[in-house]
Structure formats: structure tokens, C-alpha cells
Design goal:
transcription; 2 domains; transcription regulation; two-stranded antiparallel ribbon; Arc Repressor Mutant, subunit A; about 140 residues; binds zinc ion; DNA binding; 6 helices
């Protein structure tokens, strides 16, 4: 059963963030948090929760009269999978530029920068002259130029 459907909407992501931050939660707790940020009715939020259960992203457990929801995948793992999917869909030649764009728009701590610098030093040792394109012909502009 535990096959995840990682395609979630922006609204469902809002719900997941709440569950990831709180651990086990009732729908009421989710609604309370999300209504600080969004003008969503309780029924709408419950619909999102229901979809996430269907997608296998949330599980329910009954405790007395209440249903408790918890995430079936950790936030870090989810973010990694989402990023992997994005990078699978861009030409390998564009990886560097895409990563640079992410760095450019991020506010970073000195610690973050130290970690990136160490990583880049390691990457330097295995750097290639030119990253080969691994795209299906017709799906990127590498051949055109
Ligand atoms: Zn390509």
C-alpha cells in the first residue's frame, strides 16, 4: 500500500509543512495553523488532507473520537526527491547554471558558505572540461547551436 504519489499541489504542500513541523496532528490543528496564513475554510483544508491520505503522503490513526495524521515520508526526503525530479528534467549541461541560480537567490550563513566551499573544492577534483548532454535528441538545444 505504501506507494507514495509525490505529485502534490502547492496547497497540499502547505498541509504537509504543518504535519512535518508538528509531528502527529489532528485536522483541527492543521486548520488552525493554515488559517493564520490562508483564507481557506475548514472544509477546503479537510479536502486537501483527504487527498494527501489518498496519495499515501499522510496516514491516519484513530485515537478516541479523533483522527491523528502523520507523514509517511520525511520532509528532507521529500525535498530531495522533488529536487531529483527537477534535475532529471533539465539537461546535464545546465546543472551548474541551475545550482548557481539557487545559490544566487538564497540567503546563506557563513556555515552554509563554508560547506559549499568544501563541496566545491571536492568537485574541482572530479571536474570535466565539458559536461556531456544526456538528453533525448529533440528535448534540449544542445545539438542545435
Ligand atoms: Zn542536452
Amino acid at each position: 500500500m505504501n506507494r507514495h504519489d509525490f505529485k502534490i499541489t502547492a496547497s497540499e504542500w502547505e498541509v504537509m509543512r504543518t504535519v512535518w513541523a508538528q509531528g502527529q496532528v489532528t485536522s483541527r490543528m492543521i486548520i488552525e495553523v493554515l488559517q493564520r496564513k490562508k483564507e481557506w475554510g475548514a472544509a477546503t483544508i479537510k479536502t486537501f488532507i483527504g487527498r494527501l491520505v489518498k496519495k499515501g503522503m499522510l496516514t491516519t490513526e484513530k485515537e478516541g473520537k479523533k483522527f491523528l495524521y502523520s507523514a509517511t515520508i520525511g520532509e528532507d526526503e521529500f525535498i530531495r526527491k522533488t529536487l531529483d525530479e527537477i534535475f532529471e528534467n533539465i539537461c546535464d549541461k545546465d546543472n551548474g547554471r541551475t545550482i548557481a541560480a539557487l545559490i544566487e537567490k538564497s540567503l546563506l550563513s557563513h556555515e552554509d558558505i563554508d560547506r559549499l566551499e568544501r563541496m566545491l573544492e571536492m568537485k574541482k577534483k572530479e571536474a570535466v572540461e565539458e559536461v556531456p548532454c544526456s538528453c533525448t535528441p529533440g528535448q534540449c538545444r544542445c545539438e542545435v547551436s
